[in-house]
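User: Sequence in, structure out. Go.
Assistant: Echoing your sequence, followed by the structure tokens.
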Amino acid sequence: MGRYKRLDGKDEPIIEPEIEIVDSHHHLWMHPTMPYMLEDYLSDAAAGHNIVASVYVETQAFLRPEGPERLRPLGEIEFANGMAAMAANGAYGPCRACSAIVGHADLREGGAIGEFLDWAIRIAPERFRGVRQVTNEHPDEALYRYFKHRPPRGIMEHPNFIAGLKELEKRRLSFDASVFHHQLPALAKLADAVPDLPIIVNHMGLAVALDMDAAGRTAIFEDWRRRLREIAERPNVSCKIGGLGLPYWGFGLEERDEATGFEALAALWRPYVRAAIDAFGPDRCMMESNFSADARSCGFVPLWNALKWSVRDMSAAEKVALFSGTAKHVYRI
């Protein structure tokens, strides 16, 4: 495993610094190898890219230490809302971090999860926007070494799961879906079952090509692209463009000790970025940093440069949608 690369390339020239960015996905946590708190994020946001706001996404951090198990994830929402209040004060700079909050909830509780959701809305009425429950499943046990909290199997197939999703739908909340690409058909069935629920595919559905040769990666790419196009036929589904610094894609950047600049990143990432945008269209895609998880592979500044470079030939209106407009609409920022 390579080193933590968060600050790599921090002096790179900023591509199109005027582009307004709403970072649609990042974490704050005391991760043992990638700690990342509000001051870290705001420092990165001030490094040159025009990050005006962000979406906090759960990692089951800062849970309440006591009380009913179902309600303990409220502690993370309380934490994120406090961080958002600090950022909104303006004393730390112009970025309004955590403007929207996606919390964790166990939707296998079915209708009973409504109590949790109502508490979450009361805690952060201006910011709580939905739930993510990580549902990644893969037969390769080695993949789970990258998980902070390994998810149980069979979550999406649980008999109460759709009822839990409907509790989100009733409250005009959304569902962030963390799946591997072979799970996209199962997610598409859920999207059909709850057609008025906004569902956001995290990290473009993570095409798993870890430890594969070039031919294997090509085959996975084609399978991933086909499945992504199929789920994109559901109008209630949108897609986060990013997470490409995670090891699952098979780029191997996490194993490198040397810094990787934006052009090298874009050369690897652009086919995936453009395939996702081609499937969903810019109005249903939103760019994400996925920091600090993606700092396994690259720095914050090169990451955003690479995403901008990957869409450099797109129109100004399309870039507005990709970098801020879609996130503002989906998360009501």
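User: And one key feature?
Assistant: Strands lie at 20-26, 50-57, 96-103, 128-134, 174-178, 199-201, 237-241, 285-287.
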